[in-house]
Every structure is written in C-alpha cells, then in structure tokens.
Amino acid sequence: MTEHTLNGVALPDEQGFFGEYGGQFIPPHLKQAMDDINQAYEEIRQQPTFQQELQELFTHYVGRPSPIFHAKRLSEQLGGAQIFLKREDLNHTGAHKINHCLGEALLAKYMKKSKVIAETGAGQHGVALATACALVGIPCEIHMGQVDIEKEHPNVVKMKILGATLVPVTRGTATLKDAVDNAFEEYLKDPTNFIYAIGSVVGPHPFPKMVRDFQSIVGKEIKQQFQERFHQLPDYVVACVGGGSNAIGAFTAFLADDSVKLVGVEPAGMGLETDKHAATMTKGKPGQIHGMACYVLEDDKGEPLPVHSIASGLDYPGVGPEHSYLKDLGRVRYESATDQECLDAFMRLSRIEGIIPALESSHAVAWAIREAPRMSKDARIVVNLSGRGDKDADYVANKLGL
User: Fold this and answer.
1) Beta-strand (E) ranges in 272-394?
2) 397: Cβ–Cβ under 8 A, 6 or more apart, which residues?
3) Whole-angstrom Cα distance, residue 241 to residue 283?
4) Which residues have a Cβ under 8 Å from the Cβ of 122 and sit 6 or more positions away?
5) What is the mean pLDDT of residues 95-120?
6) 9-22 pLDDT, tens per residue?
7) CB-hemisphere CA count at 13 Å for 142?
8) Which domains does the chain have, with CATH numbers?
9) What single string gives the DSSP state of each residue in 143-167?
10) d(C-alpha 198, C-alpha 129), whole Å
11) Ordered strands of the 165-169 beta sheet
12) What gap in Å lies between CA 373 and CA 363, rounded to an integer?
C-alpha cells in the first residue's frame, strides 16, 4: 500500500491529523490501544504475505476488480454527460464495505484479538464484517439502532446467519450515531482483547487512515479501467458521503489530478432548510465527535444534533476528517440530494438500467441525474455505486405503495 500525500503533505501526519482534522481525542487509557492498532497495521501492511493474502481475497472472494458500466439509456434520456457506474454493488456482500472489513478482520487475527466489535447503520458494514470474521474465525458483535434493524431486515437476517451477535440499540434516536456510542462503550470494557472495527473513515487515528487505505482500491481501479478503455481520465468522480468511506476510496487516486472534479453528495433529507437532514459538510462546522476532529452538526451546547436521512448508512452527524480537510482545501465539492431526489434516482436507475441501487448510493446517482443535462455529451461522470438495493427494496416498496 502506497503512502498518501497531497501537495507534498503526508495524509495524515504521524499524529493522525489531516490539517486540523483527525487526531485522537480519547481518554488516556485508550490511547495506548489505538497506538497498538496503528503499530500493528503499519507492520502488517508492509508484509508481502499480508498484501498477497488480501489481494487473493479481493480477486477470488470479493470478485474484484468490479466493472464499470456505461449507463447508456439513462445518459441518452438525460441528454447530457455520459454516466458510468463503478459497480461496487457487485462485490461479495453487496457493497464496498467488504474492502476494509477483510483488512480489519485480518488485522484482528494478526493481533490475536478475541472479539471484533462494530456498529452498523444500513447493515452493509455489519454484513461485510460478519462475513470477514466468519472467514478468519473470530467472534463478531454488531451494534445496530432499533430503527435501522426494523428498516433493514434482510441485512439483520444475514448477520445472524453468518454467526454475528446482534446488539439492538434503543437509546437516543436508535440510529447510527447511537450504535457507534454503544459499540464504543462495549469496546472500552476490554480494549486489550477486543478490537473495534470502525465502519467508515471516522473515529480516532489510525482508523480514518486505515479504512481509507483499504478502500483506495476503488479509485485505483476506476483510474486504470478508464485509461485502458478511453485513454483518458473521467471528468467527474461522484460518491455519496455519510462517514465517507466509499467516497474517499473513489477520490484518493485522483487527488493530484486537477482535471478530475470530485463531488461528494450528502443527504439533504427533507430539505436543508429543515432540521431533518444529515448534510454535515454543507451545514456543519468544525468540532469533535467519536474521538476525532471534523465537521459536525451540533447544537448551541456543542452536542451532536439528531440527524435524518432516508438512507440509514448516511444518517450521521459527523464526517471523516480527511473529507473535512479536502473541503477546506476546495479539492472536493460537497453537495447534497434530498430524500425525494434519492427515491426518484432509486426508481429511475432500477427501471431504465435494471440496476437496483442502495439508497445511500442513490444520492450520488441523483446528483448525476440533476447535473448531467447541464453538461456536454463529451463529459464523462463516474458514479461510485457503493451498494445494491436489496436491503432497501421492501422499505421503498412500502413507502411508494408498490
């Protein structure tokens, strides 16, 4: 795995900061556990045997490289830019999450941990981690908000079939932020023997770096596939942003390519003018949450706000520190799509291209549908289709009366 820099600056620095964001804002007794994880990760990532094992799993277990599909009918209907889909939805377990879950499970095995603990929102991280833990033979415990359990029933069943222990979280809003809090409290009971496998590029150092590194394969593949196919780079790379793992995975390979515009699409929920959204980059401000400094949606007392998105995986009041840094630099544009735009994109892609996207990914599709008609037909947009919509099908059908 390569070192990541931008304009000659290491991302992150040795203390885990991306500019002023990131770091370790955690109790002193937890710092040693985080530093141990960082040391073990730095050791294992340099080992050819680890790299070979991970690459073989990506190829023969996950099914990488994932293809890039030209959505011709959708592009023709919109009458503007050509839209391409990076098909992470075709990965084993149905999303990009398996990319870092395999890495985290192998790291847990290397560190001889007795249990892997994690949170999940939409359930994709939970399913992927339960899968990876089954593969390497480590017990897995997943904390999930009760609201999301009821909304994402197919993924709940899969986690149980895979042998994970599911812990329902009923506190607060009973969604992703509360699941993170609950899982972190369980981890604190024995950080020596447990490992907390964070599901995005969030949390204390080294997790934003580590998850980014495992996910960076997405952007590397997009770059190689586009150059082989068109002998040029795409004009836009677009991805949804909650915590931001699929987006940072798609963006990292292109950070130094100024010709490629990078767009992160946040959940505007019921509208940015309401309090029912999770558009952290658009409406938030620098603060701290879950052991890191980043943009946060918070109240006057500095407490995280209750947030909303139709997509359980984007329902989070913080965001990855590297995204916060890239926003301030102006290297990535952060925009948003409403619940209604997301639903429309979900149905449109399903009925025009025969691809049912996850509600999370549908935010990025919605941006492409909105913006493509304003561009020339020569422009090329790559949307990272981060997950498939099997988990959302019943919910959407009920909501739309299908």
Assistant:
1) 285-289, 292-296, 332-338, 380-385
2) none
3) 14
4) 148, 152, 155, 311, 312, 313, 358, 359, 360, 387, 391, 392
5) 97
6) 999 999 999 999 99
7) 34
8) 25-58+97-212 (3.40.50.1100), 63-94+216-400 (3.40.50.1100)
9) EEEHHHHHH-HHHHHHHHHTTPEEE
10) 10
11) 165-169, 140-145, 115-120, 194-196
12) 17
The count of other CB atoms within 10 Å of the CB of residue 272 is: 14
- Name the 3-class secondary structure at 10: strand
State the residue for tokens 């495992």: 214
Query: What does DSSP say about strands 194-196 and 115-120: parallel, antiparallel, or unpaired?
Result: parallel
Beta strands per DSSP E along 222-340 = 236-240, 261-269, 285-289, 292-296, 332-338
Do β-strands 21-22 and 17-18 pair in parallel, antiparallel, or remain unpaired? antiparallel
- Rg of the chain's alpha carbons, rounded to an integer? 19
- pLDDT tens for residues 305-324? 999 999 999 999 999 999 99
Q: Is 231 helix (H, G, I), strand (E, B) or coil?
A: coil
Give catalytic residue positions: 97, 119, 386
The tally of CA atoms less than 13 A away on the side-chain side of residue 71 is 33
Q: What sign for the dihedral angle of Cα 326, 332, 337, 341?
A: negative
Tokens of 131: 């899968």
Mapped onto helix, strand or coil, the DSSP state of residue 292 is strand
φ/ψ (deg, to 5) at 80? -135, -125
Continuous segment of H or E residues that includes residue 22: strand 21-22
